[in-house]
């Protein structure tokens, strides 16, 4: 397998040292390498990231959405910056590579460009986007969404599981909700966006390939279903005479899972939460809330599946004599990556002799929101350990990250000339 050709051993060692250093900022009370946005370890880690950007010769600033920006001025004769970056927050029990490779790899790419004397025409902007993972308020990509579209009023009114409103949590990070309702970045200031990211799946490793050029990023439909049955004595009420909200929810979980299994390529369905409002062991469940999501890069399947899942949930509730409210929200539509960015990346890889394959992304990324601002693309590097991710077992080899940095730096140089 082609290894990193342009990164010297010293540069790979430097990048590895950065990965280890960032992995120190975790919530020790949680499993894996947990670094949740809006929490202390994350806050401390971002000061470290800002200092790293500064030491890499970047002009560091923080925008109103909490994104950390490291700018490498270009020769300045062309408008719009070449932007690259990702996120450094994690899921609970997450790993050390998801998002992180795209931020530390981008900083390394900026260092390598300077060390090899390359001067871009456009500014280069390296970004650590604030809070990409789904937060306690049920949405993700906070920083990139705020930068590109603004955060919707309905999101800002949400409260977390402790009934704390989002604006209160944001205040600790110095983010003013009044300043993020409209796009935080000025349209026209981005020439193109490229995100380096681990695949979070097994394909590249199975194909023994070091790089994936992402063709499309999954759409996500999120569901909250509220089942309303009748509380009753669990020991006396006849089985045929119950209105058991938990049984209706259980049948809905299986219907959602069946729908995911029927999907064509890259369709999935997951139920991540079933909550009984009254978990007393001797009471028939009266109120149960279920949270699920459907994903696919096939927009027509995704919308059809949403309708089919709703129908099956209503049928399950009816059969149990239970009422149900089904609320859907589109977290993001399917996003095809930009063909020019794809082709530029492919041409660069062929030029470097680095083998690659086109690959869709079942995970969503900050690139989804950057794509509303400018042509956007993604470069994947292999996830080892069977492609496991959102887990402490997530792993990507340093050599693979270095090859990704090679590909990223060369793609940025090529896009700089378009
Ligand atoms: O949910 C996702 O796909 C991403 O990891 N936030
Ligand atoms: Mn993730
Ligand atoms: Mn990610
Ligand atoms: Mn991402």
From TrEMBL:
InterPro entries: Amidase_Cbmase, Bact_exopeptidase_dim_dom, Peptidase_M20
Alphabetized Pfam families for the sequence: Peptidase_M20
Cofactors demanded by this protein: Mn(2+)
Keywords assigned by UniProt, alphabetized: Hydrolase, Manganese, Metal-binding
Record note on quaternary structure: Homodimer.
Protein family per UniProt: Belongs to the peptidase M20 family.
UniProt name for this protein: M20 family metallo-hydrolase
Source organism phylogeny: Bacteria, Bacillati, Actinomycetota, Actinomycetes, Micromonosporales
């Amino acid at each position: 397998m082609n290894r990193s050709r342009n990164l010297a051993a010293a540069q790979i060692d430097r990048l590895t040292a950065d990965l280890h250093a960032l992995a120190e900022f975790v919530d020790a009370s949680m499993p894996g390498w947990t670094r949740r946005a809006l929490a202390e370890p994350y806050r401390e880690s971002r000061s470290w990231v800002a200092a790293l950007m500064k030491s890499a010769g970047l002009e560091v600033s923080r925008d109103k959405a909490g994104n950390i920006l490291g700018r490498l001025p270009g020769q300045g004769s062309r408008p719009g910056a070449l932007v690259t970056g990702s996120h450094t927050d994690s899921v609970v029990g997450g790993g050390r590579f998801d998002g992180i490779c795209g931020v530390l790899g981008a900083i390394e790419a900026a260092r390598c460009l300077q060390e090899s004397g390359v001067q871009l025409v456009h500014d280069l902007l390296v970004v650590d986007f604030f809070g990409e993972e789904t937060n306690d308020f049920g949405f993700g990509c906070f920083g990139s969404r705020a930068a590109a579209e603004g955060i919707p009023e309905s999101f800002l009114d949400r409260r977390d599981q402790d009934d704390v409103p989002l604006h209160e949590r944001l205040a600790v990070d110095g983010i003013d909700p009044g300043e993020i309702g409209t796009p935080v970045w000025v349209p026209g200031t981005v020439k193109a966006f490229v995100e380096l990211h681990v695949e979070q799946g097994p394909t590249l490793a199975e194909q023994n390939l070091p790089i994936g050029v992402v063709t499309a990023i999954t759409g996500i439909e999120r569901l909250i279903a509220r089942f309303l049955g009748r509380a009753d004595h669990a020991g006396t009420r006849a089985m045929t005479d119950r209105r058991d909200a938990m049984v209706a929810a259980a049948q809905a979980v299986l219907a959602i899972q069946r729908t995911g299994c029927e999907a064509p390529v890259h369709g999935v369905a997951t139920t991540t939460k079933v909550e009984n409002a009254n978990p007393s062991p001797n009471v028939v469940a009266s109120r149960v809330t279920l949270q699920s999501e459907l994903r696919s890069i096939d927009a027509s399947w995704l919308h059809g599946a949403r309708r089919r899942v709703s129908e099956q949930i209503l049928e399950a509730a009816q059969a149990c004599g239970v009422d149900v409210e089904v609320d859907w929200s589109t977290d993001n539509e399917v996003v095809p990556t930009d063909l020019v960015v794809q082709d530029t990346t492919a041409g660069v890889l062929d030029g470097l002799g680095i083998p690659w394959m086109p690959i869709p992304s079942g995970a969503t990324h900050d690139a989804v929101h950057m794509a509303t601002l400018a042509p956007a693309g993604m470069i994947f590097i292999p996830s080892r350990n069977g492609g496991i991710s959102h887990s402490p077992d997530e792993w990507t080899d340093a050599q693979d990250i270095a090859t990704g940095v090679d590909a990223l730096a060369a793609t940025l140089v090529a896009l700089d000339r378009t």
